[in-house]
């Protein structure tokens, strides 16, 4: 059987690669590589268990570090795996340092590189993720683009060979697991909150956490909301909040990162979502939860054009959130586009292409 290597490094890659891994099982000899960029049980190991994924065959244990350190360690580690195993193709997903390492390593070897979630652009090169996306797209042999617009971005940059519009695997992941989450997760009872009565929030983007004044302004806006706000805090966020001694005293509840089924249930039953996450902008649109994204731009502009996601700056967050919490019509106007990212068959589609081409 042909070998297919799959590289993951962080929480969202594990979640969004799960449908591809499942679709490939039995059709390819899978070699699952974890770069180890995320390593806490609640940011990594827990997802393999709850999504019933095979344990990675190799963990490169690159851990935390600067952009260059993570990229360089990943590059050396992935290269040595690809040289040793010589798979027919290697896949990586999204825009993390694991992706750029894999793209660069594969591009100088016979192994074909497939970029899952190709063609996204924020057009903001101050984001390390934007640099990673652009580099990965320009060396990919297969570009699995989630939307028309992503295909167009690739075309605008002269990339048209090997491009397949597949939808986004987040739809597969979300649709497969939302009913399971509804049935199995006890998160609402555990947190003593009632459906549609609270805000689900996450903040982890470096542009928000690395500026303590900005982070404090976001937290203050959430802490003064008129409904409970549950924020499962990424370790990056917890670390800065600890450093600046931030203690919420109002509506904001900082909790540990949640398992995927718990987070899906929390999001699915929220009145409003507030985030700077890429994946959660997508999931909120799929689950039809109005979303406020605390960023000046997004590589998921289809959510904004469809009216289900709004970009806000920290100084406007409190007012905008309050309007959405209290105005049923405003909230209703921000739902109704659950299919922006495809029909939930992206994983199968990607594996079908590879099956035919490698
Ligand atoms: C990375 C990705 C980002 C993605 C996010 C998903 C890049 C450039 N960024 O950002 O695109 O949205 O993952 O969550 O690849 N830490 C822990 N335990 C862990 C992991 C991280 O304590 O298991 C802490 C460390 O202090 C670390 C910090 O979080 O320095 C940041 O982690 P890192 O993986 O560098 O970046 P993320 O912000 O997670
Ligand atoms: N998520 C989770 N537990 C949490 C917070 C988020 O399982 O406590 C999931 C969420 O459902 C989404 C993914 O993690 O699928 C998003 O990851 P993150 O926001 O860290 O990264 P991004 O998508 O911004 O790259």
UniProtKB/TrEMBL annotation:
GO terms for molecular function: UDP-N-acetylglucosamine 2-epimerase activity. Its EC number is 5.1.3.14. The gene is wecB. This is Non-hydrolyzing UDP-N-acetylglucosamine 2-epimerase. Keywords: Isomerase. InterPro entries: UDP_GlcNAc_Epimerase_2_dom, WecB-like. Pfam families: Epimerase_2. The lineage of its organism: Archaea, Methanobacteriati, Methanobacteriota, Stenosarchaea group, Halobacteria. Coiled coil: none annotated. It comes from the Archaea. CDD domains: GTB_UDP-GlcNAc_2-Epimerase (cd03786).
């Amino acid at each position: 059987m042909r070998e297919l290597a799959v590289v993951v490094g962080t929480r969202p890659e594990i979640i969004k690669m799960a449908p591809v891994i499942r679709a490939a099982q039995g059709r390819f000899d899978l070699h699952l590589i974890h770069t180890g960029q995320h390593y806490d049980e609640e940011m990594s190991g827990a997802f393999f268990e709850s999504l019933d994924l095979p344990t990675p065959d190799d963990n490169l244990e690159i851990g935390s570090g600067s952009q260059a350190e993570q990229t360089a360690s990943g590059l050396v580690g992935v290269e040595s795996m690809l040289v040793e195993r010589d798979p027919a193709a290697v896949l990586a997903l999204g825009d993390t340092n694991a992706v750029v390492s894999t793209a660069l390593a594969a591009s100088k070897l016979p192994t074909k590189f497939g970029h899952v979630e190709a063609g996204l652009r924020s057009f903001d090169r101050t984001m390390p993720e934007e640099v990673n996306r652009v580099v990965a797209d320009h060396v990919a042999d297969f570009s699995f683009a989630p939307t028309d617009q992503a295909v167009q971005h690739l075309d605008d940059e002269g990339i048209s060979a090997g491009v397949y519009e597949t939808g986004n695997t987040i739809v597969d992941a979300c649709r497969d697991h939302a009913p399971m989450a509804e049935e199995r997760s006890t998160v609402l009872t555990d947190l003593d909150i009632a459906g549609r009565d609270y805000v689900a929030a996450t903040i982890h983007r470096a542009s928000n956490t690395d500026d303590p004044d900005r982070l404090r302004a976001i937290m203050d806006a959430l802490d003064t909301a008129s409904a409970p706000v549950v924020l499962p805090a990424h370790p990056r966020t917890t670390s800065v909040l600890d450093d600046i001694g931030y203690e919420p005293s109002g509506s904001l509840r900082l909790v540990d990162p949640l398992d995927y089924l718990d987070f899906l249930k929390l999001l699915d039953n929220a009145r409003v979502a507030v985030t700077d996450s890429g994946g959660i902008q997508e999931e909120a649109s799929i689950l039809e939860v109005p979303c406020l994204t605390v960023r000046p731009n997004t590589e998921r502009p289809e959510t904004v054009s469809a009216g289900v996601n709004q970009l806000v700056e920290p100084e406007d967050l409190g007012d905008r959130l309050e309007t959405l919490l209290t105005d049923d019509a405003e909230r209703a106007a921000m739902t109704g586009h659950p299919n922006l990212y495809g029909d939930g068959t992206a994983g199968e589609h990607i594996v079908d292409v590879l099956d035919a081409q490698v």
